[in-house]
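Morning!

This is the sequence you dropped in the shared folder:
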Amino acid sequence: MSNNLFPNNDPSYGPELRAALSRLTLFVHSFEHSYMELGRIRNKYKHRFMNIRARQKFKRFKKEIRGFNDALRDVIEKSGNMTFDELINFLATTYTAAHGKSPSSFISHARDTIIGARNEVAFEQILTTAGITFNEGTDEDDARGGDVLVENVRIDTKTSWRKTEKAKAHALAHGYNPDRVVWSHINQDDYEGRLTLPAYKLQELAAKVRPDIERAVASVRPGHKLA
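The structure's back. Tokens below.
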């Protein structure tokens, strides 16, 4: 692994982060392949019933992308002072070294996935800061709109106010509970170019998110109060 991105005099680029980055490189090829194949399946079956073989492929590709996403989360949780751009550059260098070609398509897909993983980690850190006990959603929970579970209530988190309102409207139109859709209240500038939120921002966002989580839980379990 190149040391150009990770100066030896910076203690935040220690052995745990380097180990996490090494693990991430193992998923680079399978991620890009699976991402492209999932796109093809979604386009092919957008308005058609997905047969058994297609469903099996879909699940397999989703599992491979989940591996990349989990490795990304590990990097983010151990990132220290590592910046978003440094991670992008690391992945671009890794991809080019392995494939000897432009990583533009891969980097576009990886960038979107990093943003999603970064927000997942940040939202969980916000919940922890707010003193809210939660469980990570499984693939099945995720398919049913459950990014995290609080008091066994599936919470569907969104990264922007616009996406939140759109999801709430969709839930209402189809007879689902819109209160389970919760905005993280995170703006991308809040990260200050890093992969995790600064401590003061976690405190600010925790105060905004907790009432939304309380409302979501109460909408499923009336009268229930969070600990």
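Headline: Helices lie at 15-25, 28-44, 52-77, 84-99, 104-129, 139-143, 161-173, 199-220.

More detail when I'm at my desk.
O.
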